[in-house]
């Protein structure tokens, strides 16, 4: 319904409201695949199953610009949203046909206050980073950061008092869940900026059409899909901790390499850079997802998965916000230096991704890999 409303929108206000409806539906769908894996797949097959489930989520944002560019060029922007309708109907049929019912005996009442506090936290934090430059910006940003911190503290107090809060605080007693959550946030902020920044670079700097810039994202999508079968053998061979450290460095370096793209840069090198990024990023997401969730008990799987999805959405939004903000800062008030702006922005978002390696160093390797993982690694 959200996509239909978006396609029928006649003004920016209508489109914004419709996008909110679409976002609510999408955010509820995101955790379902992972939760089904958590509840039904044995632990030794978890990362392979999760890698397969994540293909759609990984490939979609990269194939999207290609399809979007084609639809805009061949028809109109409305079809960017209307194309979701048959896809949604096909998904609805598949769920009804193939997904077994999983009724829960006891469902706790929805935590309205907890949801409100965390929603306010995310909105305040995002706005603090997204305020336009101008007088009083720092004061407003500081106030919004303080508000986001205050709402987190209020949620902790609320969760301690409520029997069934939105997210149980005991989730954070699982050390790898806490580390994985923070590592996911930092890493995804950097990598989520790439699907936003690259089409801008290709169109504004190199003169590509929307369709051409979308097609340039295909090497990343194809490489990401091909790399999925490599994840489980590599993790078994080296362990989660070593794999994530090395692959995080590879993802960050791949993002920073986009800084050299400009006039005269060979097309073959662009394709190679995108393929490396797509493969490394695809494996990174699957490994990070598994690290974060695999240690949770069955009782906490649903709650932990939902919190993880919320952090994912926050990271994607922050990636676009930070990426766009950096281009504006480095380009100057009149955007007089667009080439330099993109160069510095890719270096910065790549560095943000590299910072997540410091977070993943805190993983409890023995608890995470287990005896069998260590034996395979040796």
UniProtKB/TrEMBL annotation:
This is Putative transport protein HsrA. It is a multi-pass membrane protein. The gene is hsrA_2. The chain crosses the membrane at residues 20-37, 49-71, 77-95, 107-127, 139-157, 177-202, 214-231, 243-261, 267-287, 307-329, 341-360. It holds the Pfam family MFS_1. It is found in: Cell membrane. GO terms for cellular component: plasma membrane. One of its GO terms (molecular function) is transmembrane transporter activity. Residues 1-368 form the Major facilitator superfamily (MFS) profile domain. Keywords: Cell membrane, Membrane, Transmembrane, Transmembrane helix, Transport. It comes from the Bacteria. PANTHER family: BLR6921 PROTEIN, MAJOR FACILITATOR SUPERFAMILY MULTIDRUG TRANSPORTER MFSC. It comes from Achromobacter ruhlandii. Its main location: membrane.
């Amino acid at each position: 319904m959200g996509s239909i409303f978006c396609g029928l929108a006649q003004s920016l206000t209508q489109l914004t409201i419709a996008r909110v409806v679409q976002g609510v539906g999408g955010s509820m769908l995101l955790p379902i695949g992972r939760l089904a894996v958590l509840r039904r797949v044995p632990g030794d097959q978890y990362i392979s199953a999760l890698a397969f489930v994540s293909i759609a989520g990984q490939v979609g944002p990269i194939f999207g610009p290609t399809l979007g560019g084609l639809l805009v060029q061949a028809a109109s922007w409305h079809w960017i949203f209307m194309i979701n309708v048959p896809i949604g109907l096909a998904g609805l049929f598949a769920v009804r046909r193939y997904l077994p019912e999983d009724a829960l005996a006891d469902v706790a009442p929805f935590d309205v206050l907890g949801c409100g506090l965390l929603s306010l936290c995310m909105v305040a934090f995002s706005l603090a980073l997204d305020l336009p430059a101008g007088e009083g910006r720092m004061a407003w940003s500081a106030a919004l950061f303080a508000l986001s911190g205050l709402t987190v503290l209020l949620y902790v107090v609320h969760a301690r008092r409520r029997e069934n809060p939105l997210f149980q605080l005991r989730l954070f007693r699982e050390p790898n869940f806490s580390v994985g959550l923070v590592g996911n946030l930092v890493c995804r902020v950097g990598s989520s900026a790439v699907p936003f920044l690259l089409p801008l670079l290709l169109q504004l700097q190199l003169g590509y059409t929307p369709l051409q810039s979308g097609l340039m994202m295909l090497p990343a999508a194809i490489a990401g899909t091909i790399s999925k079968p490599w994840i489980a053998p590599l993790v078994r061979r080296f362990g989660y901790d070593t794999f994530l450290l090395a692959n995080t460095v590879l993802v960050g370096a791949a993002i920073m390499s986009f800084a050299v793209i400009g006039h005269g840069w060979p097309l073959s090198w662009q394709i190679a850079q995108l393929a490396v990024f797509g493969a490394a990023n695809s494996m990174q997401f699957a490994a990070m997802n598994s690290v974060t969730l695999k240690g949770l008990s069955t009782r906490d799987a649903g709650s932990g998965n939902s919190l993880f999805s919320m952090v994912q959405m926050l990271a994607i939004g922050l990636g676009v916000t930070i990426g766009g903000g950096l281009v504006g800062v480095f380009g100057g008030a009149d955007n007089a230096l667009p080439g330099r702006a993109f160069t510095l922005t890719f270096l910065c978002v790549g560095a943000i991704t590299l910072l997540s390696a410091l977070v993943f160093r805190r993983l409890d390797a023995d608890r995470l890999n287990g005896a069998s993982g260590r034996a395979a690694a040796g």
